[in-house]
Every structure is written in C-alpha cells, then in structure tokens.
C-alpha cells in the first residue's frame, strides 16, 4: 500500500512538473531567448533597462517571428480560458481578432496594451497586477497583470 502511495505521488509530481515546464516555454522571455540566442538572465537585464521583449526581438531582426509565436501562445491561452469557462468563444474570438489587427501596427514597443483594453490581462505590466492573468507574464516574475476575473 505504501508503495502505491509513493508511486501515485511521483506520478502527480511528474504531471505537475510537466505542466509547469509547458507553461514556462510560453513566456515571452523564453520565446525571445530561443529566437535571439540570448540567455534569460541577459534578457531580464535588458528589460530592467526599459526595453520590451518586442524591442529586443526587433533589434535582433526577429520581430515577425516573435509576433507569430506570441499570437500562437495567446490563442492557446484564450482557448484554455474558453475551456475553463472564464471566457465565451465569442469573447475569445473578439480578443484574438483585435490582437491580429493590432499586430499589423506592432513596432515592438508594447504600446498597444490590448489585454488591458479587454480586461484579460496577458500579463504585460511590470508585475503590479494581482488578477488572474492569462499567463504570458512579462512582469519579470513579480505578477500576472490585470486578470479577467469571473
């Protein structure tokens, strides 16, 4: 009986760890790191100096790739929020369409603040929010932005 409990505990730990790793791979810092070859620590230092991840990607000639990856991640997050019942499909589609439209004008500065407009909090702030953000956390690990609470 004790072995079954240990095995179950290890299985649960493995699932939770895998989920955490999957989430970590969707952070903007990880995307920029993958695209530019810069370390996460270096990117955090550049963010602390006031650069956005978009600006860093743009300087490396990778802005379009960064935007595509961010769009893919935001769509996955919106789909998950629909599954969880935190957004309707119509709300998710409206947000995604706005994201696509804004990306046409994206210059990498992060000035669009789309998550704030719709109250879904993609975590683009500097970590000051405490809501249930949609998990893209650019808040340098200090917060999740203004979340959509339902």
UniProtKB/TrEMBL annotation:
InterPro entries for this protein: DUF2680
Region described as Disordered: spans on this chain: 130-150
Pfam families xref list: DUF2680 (PF10925)
Keyword annotations of the record: Signal
Signal peptide: 1-24
Name of this protein: DUF2680 domain-containing protein
Species of provenance: Thermobrachium celere DSM 8682
Organismal lineage: Bacteria, Bacillati, Bacillota, Clostridia, Eubacteriales
């Amino acid at each position: 009986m004790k072995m079954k409990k240990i095995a179950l505990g290890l299985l649960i730990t493995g699932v939770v760890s895998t989920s955490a790793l999957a989430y970590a791979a969707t952070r903007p810092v990880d995307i920029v790191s993958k695209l530019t070859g810069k370390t996460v620590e270096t990117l955090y230092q550049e963010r602390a100096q006031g650069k956005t991840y978009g600006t860093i990607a743009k300087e490396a000639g990778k802005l379009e790739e960064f935007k595509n990856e961010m769009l893919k991640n935001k769509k996955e997050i919106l789909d998950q929020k629909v599954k969880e019942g935190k957004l309707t499909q119509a709300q998710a589609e409206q947000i995604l369409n706005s994201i696509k439209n804004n990306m046409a004008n994206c210059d990498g500065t992060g000035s669009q603040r789309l998550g704030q407009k719709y109250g879904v909090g993609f975590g683009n702030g500097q970590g000051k929010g405490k809501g249930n953000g949609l998990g893209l956390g650019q808040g340098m690990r200090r917060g999740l932005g203004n979340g959509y609470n339902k």
